[in-house]
């Protein structure tokens, strides 16, 4: 199904002053209750990555899991979960970070990637880029290469996608919300 930016944006709802005053929260959950929207988003990523040489798809807790799991299934690639602190059993490596509306800590299981792995890192949204940069640190610390970062929404005014590009990370955002 051909990607239609207008259609996808008609599904994404903006909630003002949530979870904190001053934040315009871009709610992607209606995409998942709309089979056409879900198909359109998944197809856009399948089309982009079907012929690429990615070896793994990594994704970030929690909204990043939703599309990444379907994409990993479609592309038949192993899926690596990067989770909020305290959720993964066994030996983990963790990384603290700041995001648009708070602070948190991400973890990955030790040995989930290795040198030579070509990872597509997926999250739902790029704001300040703090979350993705922390995830990149966890993956590269174990020797993996970040082939590309993909997200449904980019908020370029918050500087995250530029910060990633400044760190030589390739970034693919499906749709963008710049200051309207
Ligand atoms: O670019 P940043 O400023 O770091 O913000 C982007 C992150 O913020 C949201 O995650 P959140 O921690 O709210 O988690 P959730 O997916 O569990 O709702 C979103 O899903 C991204 O991961
Ligand atoms: N403005 C925003 N909307 C939805 N998720 C977010 N994560 C960080 N900033 C966000």
Highlighted features:
9 strands; glycosyltransferase; globular; Rossmann fold; binds 1-O-pyrophosphono-5-O-phosphono-alpha-D-ribofuranose
Give, in order, the helices and strands: HEEHHEHEEEEHEHE
Which CATH class of the domain at 53-176 is shown?
Answer: Alpha Beta
**Secondary structural class:** alpha/beta
Low-confidence stretches: none
* Radius of gyration, CA atoms, in whole angstroms: 16 Å
> Are any ligands bound, and if so which?
1-O-pyrophosphono-5-O-phosphono-alpha-D-ribofuranose, adenine
Biggest sheet: strand arrangement: 5-6-4-3-7-8-9
Kindly report the CATH topology of the domain at 53-176: Rossmann fold
Helicity range: 25-40%
Morphology call = globular
User: Biggest sheet: strands, sense, closure?
Assistant: 7 strands, mixed
